[in-house]
Design brief:
Layout: H1 8-34, H2 40-48, H3 67-79, H4 86-101, H5 104-116, E1 121-124, E2 140-144, E3 147-158, E4 165-173, E5 180-188, E6 194-199, E7 209-220, H6 231-267, H7 279-307, H8 311-339, H9 353-363, H10 368-379
Parallel strand pairs: 1-4, 2-4
Antiparallel strand pairs: 2-3, 3-7, 4-5, 6-7
The protein binds flavin-adenine dinucleotide.
Protein name: Acyl-CoA/acyl-ACP dehydrogenase
Keywords: Flavoprotein, Oxidoreductase
Domain Acyl-CoA dehydrogenase/oxidase C-terminal: 231-373
């Protein structure tokens, strides 16, 4: 890759993370998923090497770089077959929000641990009755003296079982106007009233998803992140990193699947030439490669804008990058499985399970359709139907 798009430091980071990912590889991730375990060893080694916190401020133990670097880490781990989904949440969303808006105490308490991997934080915004329409969330925070009392429900929240706390997006009741305003709270895993139940997913992944019930969860004033009135701003600051990182997740998985298919197509021979010589096999693989590269370009653009402080410009690019990466990932995985014929569905080759996993990049954290809505309205100025 040229130094025009990525510096020598970026390329060195790619190579170093790729080497770490290769040491663990797909077998490690598959074993964790089958045993229902968090990829603890890889998480903690990546943390110790400074990769998990590469975007977090140096004064709190981070690498002092940005989303461009964090995205490289996740993409390369994924390309090696061992992605760390919780990177999307813990250092990218939660780390960013706390670093940018948290109080000094919150920064001291959380950032060094999020950076070295000794602490993990989940992120809960999705609600059963709100879904893609996050304006409709009803998890509500009420003041009671010095405390906050939270009530509500969340769904599909990843990694709550292994996370030390979950950053919960709620709304405060404004006593003067009766209006609800978004706000973020750090809820410790064992807080009384904070219940979780595991959702059985058709996904082979180490990270589990949970439905959460917040039933009069009492939190100290210090659990509110930053300012009560700046909740929307804080939320948006975390959403661009989330989209950029989901793009990295999709590109990494797509690259992993494509590489397996290319290896196979070079050697599998049932006629005179290896199957990769047939254009019906070669061209879709070439297209998948092009689409993954294009998605990465948009991801790099989004990360650059974000790291340069252009939150608005990054918003459009991050959405587009997530869209492009989700689609490229789904297509690459589909073609990879097909290239292997019957072996595409065997345990031995391990590609079949990526069919469901790749759909995550299309659905979460914001679905393909909601990005198309965003681009229709924000970029093209078309009218809204909802
Ligand atoms: C593996 C996984 C991990 C997840 N992890 C987390 C997490 O850690 N934290 C968290 O908060 N959430 C998490 N989520 C939730 C995820 O962000 C949501 O599933 C996603 O935002 C979609 O919401 P929904 O499932 O309620 O779908 P819905 O909003 O019900 O949408 C269903 C379908 O309708 C379409 N649709 C909805 N509205 C419109 C419209 N206006 N125009 C066109 N089409 C529309 C959608 O595109 C979608 O195809 C996770 C989900 C998965 C699958």
């Amino acid at each position: 890759m040229s130094t025009v798009l990525e510096t020598e430091e970026h390329q060195a980071l790619r190579a170093a993370v790729a080497a770490l990912g290769k040491r663990y590889g797909r077998e490690y991730s598959t074993a964790c998923a089958r045993n229902g375990e968090h990829p603890r060893e890889l998480w903690s080694e990546a943390g110790k090497l400074g990769y998990l916190g590469v975007n977090l401020p140096e004064e709190y133990g981070g690498g002092g770089s940005g989303m461009a670097e964090l995205a490289i880490v996740l993409e390369e781990l994924g390309a090696a077959g061992s992605p760390l989904l919780m990177m999307v949440v813990s250092p990218a969303i939660c780390g960013t929000v706390i670093a940018r808006f948290g109080t000094d105490d919150q920064k001291r308490q959380w950032l060094p641990g999020l950076a070295d991997g000794s602490l993990t934080m989940a992120f809960g915004i999705t609600e059963p009755d709100a879904g893609s329409n996050s304006h409709r969330i009803t998890t509500t925070a009420r003041r009671d003296g010095e405390q906050w009392v939270l009530n509500g429900r969340k769904v599909f929240v990843s990694g709550v079982d292994i996370a030390d706390a979950t950053l919960i997006v709620g709304r405060t009741e404004d006593a003067r106007t009766g209006k609800l305003k978004p706000c973020l709270f750090i809820v410790p895993r064992e807080a009384p009233g904070f219940g979780r139940s595991h959702i059985e997913m058709e996904l082979q992944a180490a990270e589990k998803q949970f439905e959460l019930v917040l039933d009069d969860v009492r939190l100290p004033a210090a659990a509110l992140v930053g300012e009560e009135d700046a909740g929307l701003l804080q939320l948006f600051a975390g959403l661009n990193p989330e989209r950029i990182m989901t793009a990295a997740f999709g590109i990494g998985m797509g690259r992993y699947a494509l590489a397996r298919a290319v290896e196979y197509a070079k050697t599998r021979q049932v006629w005179k030439e290896p199957i990769g010589a047939h254009q019906a096999i070669a061209h879709p693989l070439a297209q998948a490669h092009i689409e993954l590269e294009l998605a990465r370009l948009m991801m790099q653009k989004a990360a650059r804008l974000y790291d340069d402080g252009d939150d608005i410009g990054a918003g459009e690019a991050a959405n587009m990058a997530k869209y492009a990466a989700g689609e490229a990932c789904v297509k690459a995985v589909d073609q990879a499985v097909h290239t292997l014929g019957g072996n595409g569905l065997t345990r031995e080759y391990g590609l079949g399970s990526l069919i469901t996993a790749s759909r995550v990049a299309r659905i979460a954290p914001v679905s393909r359709e909601m990005i198309l809505n965003y681009v229709s309205h924000q970029s093209l100025g078309l009218p809204k139907s909802y």
